[in-house]
Amino acid sequence: MTADHGGRLQIQQFDLPDGNVRFDPDFLSLGEADQCLELLLREIDWQQKSIKLFGKTIPQPRLVAWYGDPGASYTYSGLTWEPLGWTEGLRSLKSQVEASVASMLGQTVKFNSVLLNLYRDGQDSMGWHSDDEPELGCNPAIASVSLGATRRFALQHKRHKALKQKIDLSHGSLLVMAGETQHHWRHQVAKTTKVQEPRVNLTFRYVIV
Ligand SMILES: O=C(O)CCC(=O)C(=O)O
Ligand SMILES: [Mn+2]
């Protein structure tokens, strides 16, 4: 990654076969990111849900919340979420994300919902998966904003398992996955003993209603 003339780090585009993944480490300024994190920790209705895995009910290793337009419900791991209404902060972040994603991908993008994850410390995690639920449509653009502790995001090609990419998702960064990425790649945020601080991640999505 190199700095451009404004001292700003450039948007990174990863050379992933069958995928389209871009990363802007400077999406939010430090002040904006700090303010946003503080607001979300305070005002989001964080919940710990349980999921069924191999017949056992276990609590998810993180707190979650789902916000969006009325009717933008979402089902994953056997859980169906009805959205809470947009807060002022989430609505304004959504507009900022839509504008950045449009310039990164060179196409208009609209989101109608956001999944929020709160990783309380390094022991909270998200296992391997693709964002390939039917309500996201065929080639969804997913925009992921990270706040707080830096956590490592790992991508692995589904068929060619030696193909991998690691991206450290830092405070105020924006990661975009588009095109066929969800068909061919899975991703995770693994546990780590190195992180003690919380991290909030928001994935803006368009669900077909
Ligand atoms: O926390 C992250 O960076 C990943 C979140 C994610 O993959 C998801 O919400 O589907
Ligand atoms: Mn995901």
Q: Which labels suit this protein?
A:
single chain, 209 residues, alpha+beta, Jelly Rolls, seven-stranded antiparallel β-sheet, four-stranded antiparallel β-sheet, 3 helices, 17% helix, globular, binds 2-oxoglutaric acid, binds manganese (II) ion
Alpha-beta classification: alpha+beta
Query: How many beta-strand runs?
Result: 15
CATH architecture: Sandwich
Mean pLDDT over the residues: 94
Number of domains: 1
CATH topology name: Jelly Rolls
Helix/strand order, N-terminal first: EEHEEEEEHEEEEEEHEE
Query: What is the top-level CATH class?
Result: Mainly Beta
Q: Regions with pLDDT < 50 over 5+ consecutive residues?
A: none
Sheet having the most strands: 7 strands, antiparallel
User: Beta-strand percentage?
Assistant: 35-45%
CATH homologous superfamily designation? Alpha-ketoglutarate-dependent dioxygenase AlkB-like
Helical residue percent?
10-25%
Summed up, the helix count is 3
Please tell me what the overall shape is: globular
Over the alpha carbons, how many angstroms does the gyration radius reach?
16 Å
Task: Identify the bound ligands.
Answer: 2-oxoglutaric acid, manganese (II) ion
| Cα end-to-end separation | 39 Å
Strand order of the largest sheet: 1-2-13-10-15-8-5
